[in-house]
Amino acid sequence: MLDATKPSLPFTPGVGYKAQHFNDIMKDAGPVGWLEIHAENYMGMGGRPLAQLRHLSEKFPFSVHGVGLSIGGEGRLDADHLARLKTLCDWLNPASFSEHLAWSTHESAFLNDLLPLPYTAATVKRVADHIDEVQSTLGRQMLLENPSSYLAFAESDMSETDFLAEIVARTGCGLLLDVNNVFVSATNLGYSPQGYIDAYPLDVVREIHLGGHDEDEDETGAPLLIDSHGAEVVDPVWALLDYTLSKSGPKPLLIEWDTDVPEWAVLVEETKRADAALSVLV
After folding, report:
1. Whole-structure pTM value
2. Which SUPFAM superfamilies does the UniProt record give (predicted)?
3. How many whole angstroms separate alpha carbon 243 and alpha carbon 268?
């Protein structure tokens, strides 16, 4: 359940905040109504980045997106990392906090990637236990993001959408639906992206993400899409967004662009297209 005392994200486009865009955003944000940061970039103390963030937070609601908790990892969550995350969330008071359905740690090693999980009862319990710990520590609901997939585990005994629904039922977390990830996974694994959306628990989606991907081929010559966050959103993903919104209704929409970051004007054009997708629902 959402806490009515906390801020909420508007049903408008948002962007992933990059420091080089600070002056442009303050001058003219265009249709951008909210901003997202990656938590791990703002866990330090003081300095210009935090000063800019405090200034922006007076004008925009924020979403904090984690990439380092290793929610699906076999070991315990890193207590120091979680404590630093709590400090950030306590002073910024973001409208939402989200993390990935993935693992990135093994024993004391941190792997700079978001690695996949088998969808089994044992994984459900481990992920749910970790989400319970995060939500209890932060004192706020967490959103869980669907992954981009490049392989499927033979031991999985439930679908990804059923797995996510079970996690929500056990923890009360919300979901972050990455539409580009759906398209990437469906292309790579050979299923219908619309069928995935049909089975997805859209009633608990609190954010939708859009981003670009790279096109490649696997060793057999079949299409292989790589979730890169380094290009414009392609037309089939916009079409999948329209399909999703027709079923879910309006949601906060984020444009993710994390590599080869363009000029602010390019991001504004992407947010205008997102704004148009939302406006037809009004």
Report:
1. 0.93
2. Xylose isomerase-like
3. 23
